[in-house]
Design goal:
Elements: E1 10-14, E2 23-30, E3 33-40, H1 50-64, E4 68-70, E5 74-75, H2 76-92, E6 101-103, E7 106-107, E8 117-120, H3 125-133, E9 140-145, H4 154-171, E10 174-180, H5 183-187, H6 192-207, E11 214-218, E12 245-249, H7 255-263, H8 266-271, H9 289-301, H10 316-320, H11 327-342, H12 349-359, H13 362-387
Parallel strand pairs: 4-6, 5-7, 8-9, 8-11, 9-10, 11-12
Antiparallel strand pairs: 1-2, 2-3, 3-10
Helix pairs in contact: 1-6, 3-7, 7-9, 9-11, 11-12
Length: about 400
C-alpha cells in the first residue's frame, strides 16, 4: 500500500503478514526518513489494514503539512472520521497542519459480529476502573509492549505478562499482548503523552478490527479536567467505523473516584500497577509522583495497608520533594487535596504536602531542579576522585 504526497512524500508499504512469527510489517517513509515497523501478537491474527497505516502516518503528515494520497481501498466512514479528527487536532495544536485525504478507492465495510469486546489495559488506575466497571461484558484486555515500557526492558515486561496472566486466570478475561517497535514513529513528530499515544492506540484499534466488535479506551481525565490531549473523548471515537466501535470510558469519574472503586476490589489491590520507574521485585517504587498520588487516595480511604503492590505507609516528606512538570500533574495534586478535605483530613501532613506542591510557583521548582542537578554533579565528581 502507498500513501504519497506530491511535494512532501509519505510512503507506506505493508509487507505480507508472517504466519510463522505472527507479525505484520510496514515500511513507512516520512520526509525522507524511513521506519521499519512491526506488530506481533501470538494469540490472534492482526488485520494489517490500510486504516492502521493511516493512523501511523497521521502525526507525521500533520506535522509536515502533507496531504495523504491513498491508493488502497479504504473504509469510507473511517476517512470521514479521520477528517474530523484532523480538524480537531489542528485547532488544538497550531504546530500541526490540517492534512487532507485523497483516496483512489473507498469501500463500505461489512463485518459479521465476533461477540468480543476489548479494553486497553496497563494495570493502572484508569484501566482497572474501566475493567471493573465493564467486567461483565469484556472478553479481552489489550496490552501493548513497546509503548509504556521499552522493548529491551525484559524484567518489567515479564512482570506485566505475569500480572495479565494472573488476572486472566482469576477472571477468565483473555489477556492479549501485542509487541511493536512503532513508538519512534510517533515520538519523532510530537510528544507521546500530549500528541502521540492516541494515534498509537488508534493503530492498535485498526489492527484488531477483525477480532473485536468494540474496544474501550480508559480515560485519562474527568470531564471537568479535560484539555487538549492525545487520547480524548472527542477524538478516540473517530478511529472507529462499521468494523469496530471505540468507547472512550471513565470521564464521569475523577482519579480519586476511580481509586475509591479500586480500593473495594481485592483483585485490583493485588495487581494495581501505576509506576514504571523501578521494579526491584515490586510493582511500584512508592516514591514517584504517580505512586504517591495513588497511595494518597488509598491512604485516605484506609486501604493502603491492604494493597499488595505499594508500601503500607505514606511519607509527607516524599510528596513535598516532588517537582510537578505538567498541568495534568498539578490537576491530580489538587484533586488529592480536595479529596482529603472531603474526608475531613484538613490538618493531615499528607494533605498539606500536596497543597504545597500544587501551589508551588514554577520559578521555585526550576531553582530546586537546578540545585538538585548541581548536587548530583558534585557527587559524581567526588565519587570519581575517590575511585582514582
Amino acid at each position: 500500500m502507498q500513501i504519497i504526497t506530491p511535494a512532501n512524500s509519505i510512503v507506506i508499504c505493508k509487507k505480507a503478514a508472517s504466519a510463522r512469527d505472527h507479525k505484520v510489517y510496514y515500511d513507512i517513509e516520512v520526509k525522507g526518513k524511513a521506519y521499519e515497523v512491526y506488530f506481533s501478537a501470538t494469540r490472534l491474527k492482526l488485520s494489517g489494514s490500510v486504516e492502521a497505516a493511516i493512523c501511523m502516518a497521521a502525526l507525521g503528515a500533520m506535522r509536515n503539512g502533507c496531504d495523504l494520497l491513498i491508493s488502497d481501498p479504504v473504509s469510507e466512514s473511517f476517512i470521514k472520521n479521520q477528517e474530523k479528527l484532523f480538524d480537531i487536532f489542528s485547532k488544538w495544536f497550531p504546530e500541526f497542519y490540517r492534512s487532507s485525504f485523497k483516496c483512489h478507492h473507498t469501500k463500505q465495510i461489512e463485518k459479521q459480529s465476533t461477540g468480543r469486546i476489548g479494553c486497553f489495559f496497563t494495570g493502572g488506575v484508569d484501566s482497572f476502573y474501566t475493567f471493573l466497571k465493564h467486567r461483565s461484558v469484556l472478553t479481552d484486555l489489550i496490552y501493548v509492549h513497546g509503548y509504556d515500557v521499552k522493548l529491551e526492558d525484559r524484567e518489567k515486561r515479564r512482570a506485566i505478562s505475569a500480572m495479565g496472566q494472573a488476572i486472566e486466570k482469576e477472571t477468565g478475561v483473555r489477556f492479549i499482548e501485542i509487541e511493536t517497535n512503532a513508538i519512534r514513529l510517533f515520538k519523532d513528530f510530537g510528544k507521546w503523552g500530549l500528541h502521540g499515544h492516541g494515534f498509537g492506540l488508534g493503530t492498535i484499534v485498526r489492527l484488531l478490527d477483525d477480532y473485536l466488535d468494540c474496544i474501550y479506551i480508559p480515560s485519562s481525565f474527568a470531564t471537568a479536567e479535560l484539555m487538549p490531549w492525545a487520547s480524548h473523548p472527542e477524538t478516540d471515537v473517530l478511529f472507529a467505523d462499521e468494523a469496530i466501535a471505540v468507547v472512550h470510558d471513565g470521564c464521569e469519574a475523577t482519579r480519586t473516584d476511580k481509586v475509591r472503586l479500586i480500593a473495594s476490589e481485592p483483585l485490583a489491590l493485588r495487581h494495581l500497577r501505576v509506576c514504571w520507574e523501578k521494579l526491584e521485585g515490586a510493582y511500584n517504587c512508592g516514591r514517584c509522583e504517580k505512586c504517591l498520588r495513588t497511595m494518597t487516595t488509598l491512604y485516605g480511604l484506609g486501604a493502603l495497608p491492604a494493597s499488595q503492590t505499594f508500601p503500607s505507609k505514606m511519607s509527607a516528606g516524599s510528596i513535598r520533594g516532588l517537582l510537578l512538570e505538567s498541568e495534568s500533574a498539578k490537576t491530580f495534586a489538587r484533586d488529592n487535596v480536595s479529596f482529603l478535605d472531603e474526608l475531613g483530613m484538613h490538618n493531615d501532613p499528607v494533605r498539606d504536602a500536596w497543597e504545597v506542591i500544587a501551589t508551588r510557583p514554577a520559578w521555585k521548582s526550576r531553582i530546586m531542579r537546578r540545585w538538585r542537578r548541581f548536587k548530583k554533579q558534585l557527587l559524581r565528581q567526588w565519587l570519581k576522585r575517590v575511585k582514582t
